[in-house]
Amino acid sequence: MRKFYVVGNLKMNMLSREEAAQYLSVLNREVHDKQYQHVTLVVCPSFLYLSQFDDLPEGIAKGAQNLFSEKSGAYTGEISPVMLKNDGVEYVIVGHSERRRYAGETNEMIRGKALSAIRNHLTPIVCIGETKEERHAEETDSVLMLQVKTLFSGFSKSQAENVIVAYEPRWAIGTDVVPTTGEILGVRVLLRKLFTEIFDARTAQRMTILYGGSVKRSFLPAVSWEAGMDGVLVGRESLFPHELVKMMNLFEEEAEKE
Ligand code: PEP
Is residue 85 a contact partner of residue 116, using CB atoms and an 8 Å limit? Predict the structure, then answer.
């Protein structure tokens, strides 16, 4: 059965509990009693509001935007994977380019976070992608190869199958510039080839790969199923819950056709 994902990264938005509650009420109203069999929406609010996202409608899961690799201890300001799990979180974004940029996260650190998420029964959504400069220097493939090899080093096949990979070209995030369907498809082919080399064809086939970067509903097909992707990671548009639900509906319709 074809399965798609829509991941909404709400980032450091919604500045009060009231705003979070308002967001949730629109999300609930839009989903109403629709049944989704082929698509999961993962909503990732700020840590502060996670407990408000407990009773989500069917087909919607709770995600976090980051975690720390250790379970507990003297790590001021960090959030443990166990805390997240105990709070009902199922998915966690790791290695978002904004974490790489503002918090200095490296591929090695992100690898540790992804492994820690898996060991604590969370699904990591691992972000990879090249910068504008790397793209112009035609280094996209080599950058992605290095990221994948470092991030997945030492992973077992079953651990790899539990990872969702989000290909997010950094030049496409927040810019309203998106790669062509052909470019995304090219990356999908490259990633499947890399995962086949590192693991095997069966594992590579079972891994979920998303596209992220300036996603809007109007060109959803072009950056997702037409490009061989299993869904999308959405930034700004995820601040509009009705848009997320419309994207879910489009994925559901597409999966039913297949
Ligand atoms: C993101 O930050 O992961 C993202 C995809 O943002 P946007 O959709 O706003 O480009």
Answer: no
